[in-house]
From TrEMBL:
It comes from Zhongshania borealis. It holds the Pfam family BphC_D1. This is VOC family protein. Residues 5-121, 147-273 form the VOC domain. It comes from the Bacteria.
Length: 299
C-alpha cells in the first residue's frame, strides 16, 4: 500500500468542550467547530480542515486514526490487499465522507483491535491557520503531506500486529526499542516498534507491546521552535496539568519534547526538531537508550 501520512484522529470524550479548551488554550490549535453543524469539536493546525475531531461519548479514549492514500488507484489497490489478507472492512457513509472532507474511505481493525481508516482525496480548505496562542505553525509538510505527527498504539500481540502493518499495510521499519522501567533483572520490559510511511517523518505510527484503557499510548504534535515547546510547558505547569514525561530529547528521532496528560485520558507529546529521513538510504535501527537526556516518565 502507498500510505502517505497520518491524517486525522477521532477522539471520544465525555465532555468535548474539555478538548476545545485544551486544544486552543494549551496546545495552540485552532477551533473550527463553527464550520460544522453538529455537537462535535474540530481542531485545526494546518491547511487541512481539521486534524482532531472530538465526538461525545461514554468514554474518554482515542476512537480511531485515519491514514491517507495517494489517489483512487491506490485506494482500490489497498482494498484488494485487505481482502486478500482476509481483513474485514466497512465503507464510509456519505455523511461520514462529508464530515471528514474526503472522497472515500474504509474502516477496519488491526490485529490488536485498534480502529483504522484508509482514505484518499482529502479537502484543502485553504483557511489560514491562526493559532490563538501565536504559535508560528505545526510541522506537517507541504499542504499537510507529512501528516499531523505520530500515534503510538497499544498492541499486546505485538509481533502479529507488527507483521500486519508491514505485510498488509506496507509500513516500513524505522526503529526497534526494548527497555525496562526499573533495575529489577527479572522485569521483562516492554517493546516498541517504530514505523514509517511514504513521507520523511521518522515514524508516523509506533506499536507498544502493552495495553491502554484509553486506546492510545500517546499522540504527538510538532511545532517549529524550542521556545514554543517551552511556552507550552509553562502553560501546562500553570494549569497543573499532569506531566507524564519531563522535557528531553529522544535518540531515534531527535525530537525535543515533553509529554502531558490530555482530556482523553492518554498522553500527548509536544515537541520540535524531529528528524526528516531519506528512506532510500536508511537501515532500520535498534535503540537501547530512549533519550539522550531527560524524558523521565511518570508511570
Amino acid at each position: 500500500m502507498n500510505i502517505r501520512s497520518l491524517g486525522y484522529a477521532f477522539i471520544e470524550s465525555k465532555d468535548p468542550n474539555e478538548w476545545r479548551v485544551f486544544g486552543t488554550e494549551v496546545l495552540g490549535m485552532m477551533d473550527v467547530t463553527a464550520e460544522y453543524d453538529d455537537e462535535n469539536v474540530f481542531l485545526k493546525i494546518d491547511e487541512r480542515p481539521f486534524r482532531f475531531a472530538v465526538l461525545p461519548g461514554a468514554e474518554n479514549r482515542l476512537q480511531l486514526i485515519g491514514l491517507e492514500l495517494y489517489d483512487k488507484n491506490d485506494f482500490e489497490q489497498a482494498i484488494a490487499e485487505l481482502e486478500s489478507s482476509g481483513t474485514h472492512y466497512s465503507k464510509g457513509s456519505p455523511a461520514e465522507l462529508k464530515m471528514r472532507g474526503v472522497l472515500d474511505f474504509i474502516r477496519f481493525n488491526d490485529p490488536a483491535g485498534n480502529t483504522l481508516e484508509l482514505y484518499y482525496g482529502a479537502d484543502l480548505d485553504y483557511v489560514k491557520f491562526v493559532s490563538p496562542l501565536g504559535i508560528s505553525g505545526f510541522e506537517t509538510g507541504m499542504n499537510g503531506s507529512s501528516g499531523f505527527g505520530h500515534a503510538v498504539l497499544p498492541a499486546v500481540n505485538l509481533e502479529e500486529t507488527h507483521a500486519f502493518y508491514k505485510d498488509v499495510l506496507g509500513f516500513g521499519d524505522s526503529d526497534y526499542m526494548h527497555f525496562k522501567f526499573g533495575d529489577d533483572p527479572e522485569e521483562p520490559g516492554l517493546a516498541l516498534k517504530f514505523m514509517h510511511v511514504n513521507n520523511p517523518r521518522h515514524h508516523s505510527v509506533a506499536l507498544f507491546g502493552g495495553e491502554s484503557i484509553a486506546g492510545c499510548i500517546h499522540l504527538m504534535l510538532e511545532v517549529k521552535t524550542i521556545d514554543e515547546v517551552g511556552e507550552c510547558l509553562q502553560r501546562v505547569l500553570e494549569r497543573e496539568i499532569p506531566i507524564t514525561s519531563t522535557l528531553g530529547r529522544h535518540t531515534n528521532d531527535n525530537m525535543l519534547s515533553f509529554y502531558m496528560m490530555t482530556p482523553g485520558d492518554f498522553p500527548l507529546e509536544f515537541g520540535c526538531d524531529g528528524l526528516l529521513m531519506d528512506w532510500e538510504n536508511f537501515t532500520p535501527t535498534k535503540t537501547t537508550l530512549p533519550s539522550h537526556w531527560g524524558h523521565k516518565f511518570a508511570l
